[in-house]
Amino acid sequence: MQLEKLVTDFKAYVERIAMYGQAMSIIGFDAETVAPAGGMAMRAKRAGFFGLEIFKMRTSDEMKNFLSELAPHLQELDKETRAMYRVCKKGYDEGTKIPPEKVREFAQLRSEAGDIWVQARKDNDFSAFAPYLQRLIDMKKEFLVLRADEMPEGGVPYDIFLSDFEEGMTVTMYNDFFDKLKAVVVPLVKKIAASDTKIDSGFVETFVDIDTQRKISDLLANKIGYDLNRGHIGETAHPFCTGPEKSDVRITTRYDENAIFSSFYGILHECGHAIYEQNVNDDIANNILGSGTSMGIHESQSRFYENIIGRSLPFWQYISDDLKGILPDSFKSATPQMFFEACNKSEPSLIRVEADELTYSLHVIIRFEIEKMIFAGEVEVKDLPKLWNDKYQEYLGVSSPTDADGVLQDIHWSMGAFGYFPTYALGSAYAAQLLHYMNKEMDVDALITKGEFDKITAWLTEKIHQHGSTYTPNELMEMNFGEQLNGEYFAKYLNDKFGSLYNV
Ligand code: ZN
Questions:
Q1: Are 188 and 498 in contact (CB under 8 A)?
Q2: How many Å lie between the centroid of ligand 1 and the Cα of residue 303?
Q3: Contact residues for 321 (Cβ-Cβ < 8 A; gap 6+)
Q4: What is the average per-residue pLDDT within 72-99?
Q5: Does the annotation count 270 as an active-site position?
Q6: What is the mean pLDDT of the chain?
């Protein structure tokens, strides 16, 4: 077949997959927000239909033919088509290496394990969950054997799972990254715990009605540059960002009447995700490259707006007066410095999802180290609760009296999602790395103080947003900065910021 026609047909085929995906995102948003309970059964059927169609198209003989016919011509293709090939090849391999009966067996096991985990956590009974966790690990190990050809040279089987969630990441890369972080963060956390400097955040934990908080959400979205003409703010228990493509990117938030920071930072976080999606290049917006490239890079954008901008003193200097114009009188005497300190209060805690910017990565490191041991056969399931607590004691100086708040706290293992956790630490690290390079070209603090976020977003769009999924995370970083993920920037950022906040 002529190459030109082959590429046209391939692109048309891939665009159909993207369209089904877009329909799925609208069904998903609808289900989480306004869809009536009575429609649940049909909704599940519709979602199942589209999900299956996507799976069939990604793993079809037609796709197989496209991939094998394009393979000899990769160097002749433009970069977008080459990227589509990469994404489709990954999807095809993922969907075909494991026999369908194994996929079904695993789905069944996951569903059972999920129910058991919920109950085990309620009952604080790890022994009820342990046999299911064992079976999930055993099945995942079987999958690793079937996927052995994906293992990078000189790597280990667990690398394959790491790359599932952040393409190209390996144990070696994570080891290097986490070692740099640990060396700085573990002693810093201990010094802060022993320090006499205490931060008072009590004044932000007072009652603010939800209507007022909605006004704050709109203020933040408008100021930070989330285009509401192509967006929407909904309300759900678990905030998220989704949307079919750049002309329709929606976010949600959760309001807590006694804690304004909950939705304040939730909004900034989701706006970061949404701004990324809204700024993808028009050429690729409507195909499978039209969304962020990886979980780590996506999270770097949310963390940039939430933490690098939103938890900085310049941001509070900029936003305090506008905010106080909306907030009740009880906030009248609050200064930018007080807000800044309150939003950066750091304390070692047991629960990952409640952790602050400084201690968060330690929760992630613990999970990564444990998963590594599981897949290297260095720890047995029955010993996980003790290993968990020992590591919490070592890194954070706390240990949980219950397994419910310890090894059972996260849903991920019950879903068989091994390799997922480490990506949670990437976002902040990439964000700090981006800040380092951004500062070489402009005075970021000065821009934040003046509220000129459009200049920051323009820089991020040029380096990151416009490319969608055209490049893998490693390619994207390498192309822009001549280096891949480097934990040093985040370690330094944390040391500078929290060292001065706590005078240590
Ligand atoms: Zn996020």
A1: yes
A2: 7
A3: none
A4: 95
A5: yes
A6: 96
What Å distances lie between residue 23 and 92, 243, 265, CA to CA? 21, 9, 29
Checking if the pLDDT of 269 tops 80, the result is yes
Q: Is 345 inside any structural domain?
A: no
Which is it for the CA torsion 494, 500, 502, 504, positive or negative? Answer: positive
In a domain, 49, yes or no: yes
Distance (angstroms) between ligand 1 centre and the Cα of 302 equals 6
Catalytic-role residue among 270, 277, 299, 369: 270
Q: How would residue 241 be classed by pLDDT, with cut points 50, 70 and 90?
A: very high
- Answer whether residue 264 shows pLDDT above 70: yes
The three-state (H, E, C) secondary structure of 44-109, written as one string:
HHHHHHHHHHHHHHHCCHHHHHHHHHHHHHHHHCCHHHHHHHHHHHHHHHHHHCCCHHHHHHHHHH
What is the percent of the chain with per-residue pLDDT over 90, rounded to a whole number?
Answer: 95
Distance 25 CA to ligand 1 centre (A): 16
Which residue is listed with tokens 């009248």? 332
- Closest to 235 (Cα-Cα) out of 277, 270, 204, 205: 270
Number of domains in the chain: 1
Q: What amino acid occupies position 158?
A: Y
In a domain, 132, yes or no: no
Domain assignment of residue 22, given as a range: 1-96
Is residue 1 scored above 70 in pLDDT? Answer: no
The CA distances from residue 278 to 36, 234, 245, 287, 480, in Å, are 29, 17, 8, 14, 20
Separation of alpha carbons 389 and 391, rounded Å: 5
Residue 92 in any domain: the answer is yes
Distance 45 CA to ligand 1 centre (A): 28
Q: What is the pTM of this model?
A: 0.94
Asked whether the predicted pLDDT for residue 132 surpasses 80, the reply is: yes
Q: pLDDT band for position 485 (50/70/90)?
A: very high
- The answer to whether the beta carbons of residues 192 and 362 sit under 8 Å apart is no
Q: Which residues contact 355 (CB under 8 A, 6 or more apart)?
A: 349, 362, 363
Specify the higher pLDDT residue, 63 or 94: 63
Query: Which residue, among 94, 95, 88, has the nearest Cα to 74 in the 3D structure?
Result: 88
Q: What's the gap in Å between 273 CA and the centre of ligand 1?
A: 7
